[in-house]
Design brief:
Layout (H helix, E strand, L loop, with lengths): L7 E5 H14 L9 E7 L2 E7 L3 E13 L1 E6 H9 L5 E7 L2 E5 L4 E7 L1 H4 L8 E6 H12 L12 E7 L2 E7 L3 E8 L1 E2 L4 E5 H9 L5 E7 L2 E8 L18 E8 L7 H8 L5 E6 H11 L8 E7 L2 E8 L3 E8 L1 E4 L1 E6 H9 L5 E6 L6 E5 L8 E6 L7
Antiparallel strand pairs: 1-4, 1-6, 2-3, 2-5, 3-4, 4-17, 5-8, 6-7, 7-8, 9-13, 9-15, 10-11, 10-14, 11-12, 12-26, 15-16, 16-17, 18-22, 18-24, 19-20, 19-23, 20-21, 24-25, 25-26
Helix pairs in contact: 1-2, 4-5, 7-8
Length: about 400
């Protein structure tokens, strides 16, 4: 049974739509609890909130509130309805058993749900620190790609751990390891393991120059402000010109140990050959070798005398050989699963990278040759294949 409730407010369409869209994108549709979203109107704003087993989302949107209250509607229905509107603002109110969304020329009515059945959005944990949004976004995009996709929880997450003025991120699927360092203004500390896919989707939603991280033992929160705070002094009563909207996401940590003890050992690279090369050129050569790379996608790099030779060979498909100009110190030969090598090189875009090849099947290290503009340092390790007997 739906508890009787009432609410009425006027809100700018764009930030309201963004808040509804975040809940729709992040929470899985298969969860009954995640199928609804609550709207809490009070004071000078509306909180759009939703939660599931793995995550919770909230967005505080400035609004002119005529009647305080809490209502709930379908998450997908709200997001799709508001996203389709081209009006600058909408009026939202309960009309009978429906939540009416009105513009100057249209009315849309969504069935009400029971807010008590959805439960409240959990209270956020304490502030742990702050970091540049772009640096966090690029670090997560690079590191999360190294997480396992085979269903093993331990290797399916991104480890986030603060260390002084640095936030470190790491992920591995046992065949490769990606580690990034992001500038960090510490308030407390972070030490969590977040599912890679969930974290990737969450950081895509970040806006503004800085993200505030909230953390405790089993949860990570991301909070941010969007819009222009200078507009807060604009005309009173206009929701589109009031203080900026704010958003936040809570992510549940995987309660599993991450193989920290191995990280320092793996990152202590002792190269027998160092290659300075443009990542895009080497990546393109590897892509061209892939059709000749055989059933497991084996691509071989041979570095010596100012070039890296990229080879692919298969009895059925034929073979390829391509030279890529590079600055090479020493010489080495190593074979890799080509898709792992491509994933690593894509993280560096058009940058120049330093590739360090170690003896035997010790992992090869790839780092940016110059300091990155966004402040996120990245190291990617790829384990070579065992040489054929």
């Amino acid at each position: 049974m739906i508890t009787e409730s009432t609410v009425e407010f006027t809100v700018a369409t764009a930030p309201f739509a963004r808040a509804a869209a975040r809940a729709d994108r992040l929470l899985p549709p298969r969860s009954a609890r995640a199928g609804g979203v609550t709207l809490t109107a009070s004071g000078d704003g509306v909180r759009v909130g939703a939660s599931g087993e793995e995550a919770a989302v909230w967005g505080d949107v400035p609004a002119v509130v005529n009647v305080d209250g809490v209502v709930a509607v379908g998450r997908r229905a709200l997001a799709s309805t508001v996203a389709s509107l081209d009006a600058e603002e909408v009026r939202v109110r309960v009309e009978g058993s429906r939540l009416a969304i009105r513009t100057g020329t249209a009315r849309f009515a969504l069935p009400l749900l029971d807010p008590a059945a959805l439960g409240p959005v959990p209270a956020p944990p304490p502030v742990a620190g702050r970091a540049p949004v772009e640096a966090v976004r690029s670090a997560v995009a690079a590191v999360a790609g190294a997480a396992s996709r085979d269903g093993l929880p331990l290797f399916g997450g991104v480890r986030l751990r603060s260390d002084g003025d640095t936030l470190r991120l790491a992920a591995t699927d046992r065949f490769r390891l990606a580690v990034a360092a992001v500038p960090w203004t510490a308030v407390g500390s972070v030490d969590v393991l977040i599912p890679a896919g969930l974290l990737t989707e969450a950081v895509r939603m970040l806006t503004g120059p800085e993200v505030t991280m909230l953390a405790e033992a089993d949860r990570l929160g991301l909070s941010w402000a969007e819009g222009d705070p200078a507009k807060g002094a604009a005309a009173e009563g206009d929701p589109a010109q009031s203080s900026p909207a704010e958003g936040g996401i809570l992510l549940s940590s995987l309660a599993l140990p991450f193989p920290d003890a191995q990280l320092d050992r793996l990152l202590s690279v002792r190269p027998e050959c160092t290659v300075d090369v443009e990542a895009a050129l080497l990546r393109a050569a590897v892509e061209r070798a892939m059709p000749f790379a055989g059933p497991i996608g084996t691509v071989t790099l041979e570095a010596a005398d100012g070039v890296v030779v990229v080879r692919g060979s298969d009895d059925g498909a034929g073979d390829s050989r391509e030279e890529v100009k590079a600055e090479v110190t020493g010489s080495a030969r190593a074979s890799y699963q080509g898709r792992y090598l491509l994933d690593a090189l894509r993280c560096f875009g058009g940058e120049r990278v330093t590739l360090q090849l170690q003896a035997g099947i010790q992992p090869s290290s790839i780092t940016a040759a110059a300091d990155p503009a966004d402040g996120a340092e990245l190291r990617y390790l790829v384990v070579p294949l065992r040489p054929a007997p």
